[in-house]
């Protein structure tokens, strides 16, 4: 239960010659950052699965529920990011508030958000690249672009059992090699990717709405099949818990607090603004998609591409697929990068082996950690169905959100005297609502997903007591950790 002192974390954040970040970001820049982080695999990949299996056309309402839940949690992230603007994200916040054991739990849990998230996006990327190559008469055998024990359709309409998802593994290993080599996205490239994503989504909405068949929206809320979470009202909530993946990324907005000109107002505008804009876009995309294609046919890795094919404009279909690939590629890159940096921080604290914080002498990257993460993510992406991956990412992220909201309440009492650049309004009401919504969405995930989470956390606790508890830098009073270049 040892806590890392807030003063020590802030001092650690200033390592490297005492340099501070320039406060150059206004509310619009932060909002654009949020939109760029949020729009990714959720909208391009999981929307179709959730509509086909759980909510039908009412997947639109699922997005509304997910957006509301994120708003409460986002306000909590804003306070912690403004107070502790350092590396490690949620792991570091928890170390300062709830103690080492909870920090380890959330750091271990974040693997589900970052590493498993990258695997999920890679599977979606695979679906779009296969679809795009087909436009150029290049056909990848379906069984080599699908996980084992999943069905893949042949061109003649027959189905075969998947063997391995090679395109998913390929993109992960390619981006891992880039990250090991020190490749970084420039601000210009990031802005271009944001523009491409927004253009693709807006074009799909504006062009697709003219081809919508309103009959596909009836019934708007399909009758429950008699199974909990399978259509009906429980299906809407189950759908919300799955498409919640589409909102992952808004927590990255909170890391810009140190660079905000006026964090007291800019952070809530950026976080809530990006959430509102993305929620509206998501609802519109879900509406057009389910209006173009009967919801039962949307359980595919590339649902937007399938919907565009209904329109019949080949050039537009190719454009959408290029845009989706560009967006998904940057999301995989960021998730792989983020996972290695979280491992780096945990290893610096002694809770993981030192190799995870080893930095290449010339490239300045945690190359050993990045390579191991890349191999694991590639194997998982090659062998695991996307619906299982999506649910694991959602439950892992929601669990992290519960701890973040709890950390705000705890820190208000334990460190009440510390100045806060941004304060979450109506504490403890807002954090409690964030916890309630997160737990509610978790409750609608299937029992098998809960069991996987429990097993995952048990493995994590076993590793902590076998290694981390005896190697903790904080509790052993060690110093002199090597900084990341």
From TrEMBL:
Record InterPro entries: AA/rel_permease1 (IPR002293)
Name of one Pfam family that matches: AA_permease_2
Transmembrane segments: 28-47, 59-84, 90-107, 114-133, 163-182, 194-212, 232-257, 269-293, 313-338, 369-386, 392-412, 424-447, 453-474
Primary location recorded for the protein, binned into one broad class: membrane
Keyword Membrane among record annotations: yes
Keyword line: Membrane, Transmembrane, Transmembrane helix, Transport
Cellular localisation: Membrane
Membrane topology according to the record: Multi-pass membrane protein
PANTHER family (alphabetical): CATIONIC AMINO ACID TRANSPORTER 4, INNER MEMBRANE TRANSPORTER YGJI-RELATED
Protein name as annotated: Amino acid transporter
Organism of this sequence: Labrys miyagiensis
């Amino acid at each position: 239960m040892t806590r890392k002192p807030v003063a020590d974390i802030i001092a650690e954040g200033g390592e490297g010659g005492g340099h501070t970040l320039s406060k150059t970001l206004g509310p619009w820049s932060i909002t654009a950052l949020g939109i760029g982080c949020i729009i990714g695999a959720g909208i391009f990949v999981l929307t179709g699965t959730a509509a086909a299996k759980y909510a039908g056309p009412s997947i639109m309402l699922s997005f509304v529920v997910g957006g509301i839940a994120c708003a409460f949690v986002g306000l909590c992230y804003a306070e912690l990011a403004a107070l502790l603007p350092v590396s490690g994200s949620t792991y570091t916040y928890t170390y300062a508030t709830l103690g080492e054991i909870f920090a380890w739990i959330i750091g271990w849990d974040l693997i589900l958000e970052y590493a498993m998230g990258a695997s999920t996006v890679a599977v979606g990327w695979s679906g779009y690249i296969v679809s795009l190559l087909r436009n150029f008469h290049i056909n990848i055998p379906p069984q080599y672009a699908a996980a084992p024990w999943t069905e893949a359709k042949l061109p003649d309409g027959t189905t075969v059992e998947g063997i391995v998802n090679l395109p998913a593994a390929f993109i992960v290993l390619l981006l891992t090699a880039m990250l090991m080599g020190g490749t970084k996205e420039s601000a210009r490239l990031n802005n271009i990717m944001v523009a491409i994503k927004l253009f693709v989504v807006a074009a799909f909405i504006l062009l697709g709405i003219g081809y919508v068949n309103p009959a596909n929206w009836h019934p708007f809320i399909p009758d429950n099949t008699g199974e909990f979470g399978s259509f009906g009202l429980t299906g809407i909530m189950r759908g919300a818990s799955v498409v919640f993946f589409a909102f992952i990324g808004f927590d990255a907005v909170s890391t810009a607090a140190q660079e905000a000109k006026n964090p007291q107002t800019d952070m809530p505008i950026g976080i809530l603004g990006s959430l509102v804009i993305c929620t509206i876009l998501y609802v519109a995309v879900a509406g057009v998609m389910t209006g173009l294609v009967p919801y039962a046919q949307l359980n595919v890795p590339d649902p937007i591409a399938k919907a565009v094919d209904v329109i019949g404009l080949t050039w537009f279909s190719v454009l959408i697929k290029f845009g989706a690939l560009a967006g998904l590629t940057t999301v995989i890159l960021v998730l792989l990068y983020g996972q290695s940096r979280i491992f780096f921080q945990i290893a610096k604290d002694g809770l993981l082996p030192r190799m995870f914080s080893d930095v290449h002498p010339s490239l300045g990257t945690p190359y050993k950690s990045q390579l191991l993460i890349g191999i694991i993510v590639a194997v998982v992406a090659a062998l695991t169905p996307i619906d299982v991956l999506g649910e694991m990412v959602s439950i892992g992220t929601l669990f992290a959100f519960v701890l973040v909201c709890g950390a705000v309440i705890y820190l208000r009492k334990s460190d009440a005297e510390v100045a806060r650049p941004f304060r979450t309004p109506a504490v403890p009401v807002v954090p409690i609502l964030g916890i309630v919504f997160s737990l509610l969405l978790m409750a609608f995930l299937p029992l098998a997903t809960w069991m996987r989470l429990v097993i995952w956390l048990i493995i994590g606790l076993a590793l902590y007591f076998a290694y981390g508890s005896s190697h903790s830098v904080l509790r052993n009073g060690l110093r002199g950790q090597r900084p990341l270049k």
